[in-house]
Amino acid sequence: MDPGRVKSVSALFSNMHIFLLPSEYNGQPSITLGSEKSHYLTHVLRLKPGNSFKGQDRRGNLYSLKIVSVSRQSLVLECKEKEEHRNKNLPEITLYQCICKGKKMDRIIRQATEIGVTSIIPVISEYTIPRMDKKNARNKIDRWRRIVMEAVQQSASSVVTEITSPVSLADLEKTVDGNRINLFFHQIPLETRSLHEYLSGYPSSISLVIGPEGGLSERETELLHEKGFSPVFLRTNILRAETAAVYGLGTVQTILMEREFWEKT
Amino acid sequence: MDPGRVKSVSALFSNMHIFLLPSEYNGQPSITLGSEKSHYLTHVLRLKPGNSFKGQDRRGNLYSLKIVSVSRQSLVLECKEKEEHRNKNLPEITLYQCICKGKKMDRIIRQATEIGVTSIIPVISEYTIPRMDKKNARNKIDRWRRIVMEAVQQSASSVVTEITSPVSLADLEKTVDGNRINLFFHQIPLETRSLHEYLSGYPSSISLVIGPEGGLSERETELLHEKGFSPVFLRTNILRAETAAVYGLGTVQTILMEREFWEKT
Predict the structure, then answer these.
(1) Which residues of chain B neighbour A37 with C-beta distances below 8 Å?
(2) Is A184 within 8 Å of A207 (Cβ atoms)?
(3) Whose CA is closest to B215, among B241, B237, B184?
(4) Interchain contact A100–B (C-beta under 8 A)
(5) What is the gyration radius of the CA atoms in chain A, in angstroms?
(6) How far is B34 from chain A (nearest CA, A)?
(7) Nearest CA in chain B to A1
(8) Closest C-alpha to A20, from A1, A39, A37
(9) Can you tell me the distance from the alpha carbon of B84 to that of B246, in angstroms, rounded to the nearest whole number?
(10) Is B257 within 8 Å of chain A by CB?
């Protein structure tokens, strides 16, 4: 391996990035790492006793880590918890997800939670297939809440995603707020603004509407317009609802996270 | 609705965008649209007989469309096929997907095909759980090919995704080609280059490695480095393999598609 590259990786790593603590780590003041991670830190990243870098546990808490000692097969790290919050600069993302059938909706909720959306609002739209009577709505919401809690834990998300009761698309409130961007993905292009253009500036929150399996009706598209939502046309194929949700959330999150690398000043 | 906005949407629509032809359209020289689409074109977008705009059928073919006549409940469009191909400027995307268990791998393959990747290479990695003996490998590949064909049709993808036999991660060839970008997503940050930085310039093709459920081992990470793959650290939570694949592909595709809107000149 090119030693120049390794050195710069190591410097960048210790200044800017986050080491993921093992899943058994639970807030102790120090931890002993086994041979694989130890080799990695000392041989691949060339870190030495005394070097400090940032770490994170599986619940999203941040730590300042310092290598205390290195032996042949292990390494001891000192761990000091930090106040700072990992995603604190990321705008809040709300997913308005038109309800899809059973397992599909479950998967979208699980994946949106993994990605770290702030809230999920299940939406009843014209082409929503599952019937939502009172009793079955209660069961569904209970199941969705359990899925959210599992996904928060598995993904070490620092955001505990909120999931609300279903609302009807017609009942969405009109929000006019300069710091809020409201978007919906649509197959028929209605505007030429790109996602990068919508997300430039510093929106404090983003709302994203994703249609159900049958898509949004043209009447709903007009209604969303009237309520202050702008259409985004992604130049891709016709995506099923569950693909569109993850595709859209991933894209929005990465564009926001990497703002410093693309925003024209 | 604000008439100024409607007019500009209509102008932009007719010059720059694509109308999705109904699923029953099959290459005929003209098509009669029903009342909903007709209302949409004439009342929402304010188009008139004689106006032309671009269209696309469900198989990804492009058409020049012209409104011939409008009646109360319907509208006749003249359709002339174009040579031009919709995604012709998009670099080829190859997904190296470490094999996941049954349904998860099926879903990743379906979703990657929907998104329009050029090829999918199933990869056997250290933490790959499913056993791949010869007979069961053949069955798996046959099933994956069927899933690909279904997804190409459903998504109207203009790319007929190719899927190869599984390869071992250790056997990946080292590619050194200035026009090719090879990336892998990794939870532990090893580099500070953002996805926007990697994708600036005009790569002719992108390869993307996504780990299996258990992630890539540190040895594999080193191996990928040696073979010319660069790590990308997405500042998100710990994603499961199937979320990471769609998240990564969506992000890469959108950043490439929107290059003109962010690339610093």
Answers:
(1) 218
(2) no
(3) B241
(4) no
(5) 22
(6) 13
(7) B226
(8) A37
(9) 28
(10) yes
pLDDT (tens digit per residue) in B153-175? 888 787 889 999 999 998 888 76
Alpha carbons A200 and A196: distance in angstroms, whole number: 6
Amino acid (one-letter) located at B143: R
CB-CB neighbors (< 8 A) of B189 in chain A: 13, 16-18
* pTM of the predicted model over 0.90: no
Phi, psi of A114 (to 5 degrees): -50, -45
**How many Å apart are CA B235 and CA A38, to the nearest integer?**
24
B17 and A233 in contact (C-beta within 8 Å)?
yes
Contact B10, B47 (CB under 8 A): yes
Domains of chain A: 3-81 (2.40.240.20), 92-262 (3.40.1280.10)
Q: Does A265 touch chain B (CB under 8 A)?
A: no
Per-residue pLDDT, averaged over A219-233, amounts to: 89
- DSSP annotation of B95: E
Pairing of strands B75-81, B62-70: antiparallel
Residue B76 sits at φ, ψ, to 5 deg, of: -105, 130
What is each CA distance from A166 to A241, B44, B164, B250, in whole angstroms? Answer: 17, 29, 43, 27
Is the pLDDT higher at A107 or at A9?
Answer: A107
Which residues in chain A (172-201) have CB-CB distances under 8 A to chain B? Answer: 187-192, 194-197
**Chain B nearest-CA residue for A258:** B194
| DSSP-assigned letters across all residues of B166-214 | -EEGGGPPP---TTEEEEEE-SS------HHHHH-S--SEEEEEE--TT
CA distance A136 to chain B (A): 27
The better pLDDT of the pair B38, A111 is held by: A111
User: Which residue in A218, A237, A263 is closest to B36 by CB distance?
Assistant: A218
Distances A81 to A29, A60, A84, A223 between C-alpha atoms, Å: 9, 11, 9, 48
Nearest-by-Cβ selection for A194 from B195, B233, B258: B258
Q: Which residues of A touch B261 (CB under 8 A)?
A: 194, 196-197
Residues in chain B within 8 Å Cβ distance of A249: 247
Chain B neighbors of A242, CB-CB under 8 A = 111
Count of all residues that appear for chain B in the document = 265
Q: H or E element: which one contains A205?
A: strand A205-210
Rounded CA separation B103/B242 (Å): 10
pLDDT band at A86 (very low <50, low <70, confident <90, very high): low
Look at residue A129 and tell me whether its pLDDT is greater than 80: no
If residue A189 lies in a helix (H) or strand (E), which one and from where to where? Answer: none
In sequence order, what are the beta bridge partners of B64?
Answer: B54, B80
Would you place residue A188 in the very low, low, confident or very high pLDDT band (cuts 50, 70, 90)?
low
Task: Using an 8 Å CB-CB cutoff, list chain B residues near A241.
Answer: none
Task: State the complex-level ipTM.
Answer: 0.72
CB atoms within 10 A of CB B113: 29
